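Now for today's protein:

——
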Amino acid sequence: MGETFRQLGHLFVQSIPTVIFLFLLAAILDRLFFRPLTGVLKQREEETLGALERARELSATTEAKAKEYEAAFQAARQEVYRLRESDRRAALQEREEILKAEHARSESDLKDAEAALQADTESVKQQLANTTHSLALAVTQVVLGETTLVGPEGGRGR
């Protein structure tokens, strides 16, 4: 067993330069490779997180603007509906006024026509009365055989 310890001790002494070399290599790799790589990875992570945060902010801003746009669009739509309703009411009121004016004109025309008809009726009655009186005189003369004419006053004339 002593020989084994001696061989182990000899292997240990021979491995010291390799261990020192490995520590030196680890220090050099850490300084030249791992630290810059770690720095780049941290910077990348920070930029990624920053980009994600900016994306969230832009998303929130976009959503707020979309809601604002939708509200403005809804208000504009309500305004259009209000204007349409106002125009419709104005058109209905104008239609009512036109109907009332035409109705009044029709009533006036009807009254004028009734007055003209009444005047024509009176004129025809007067003519009929005159014609009837003349015919009655003519019939009377024919029946009685008289040659004297009776005037409209009911007296005899020559």
The mean pLDDT is 89.
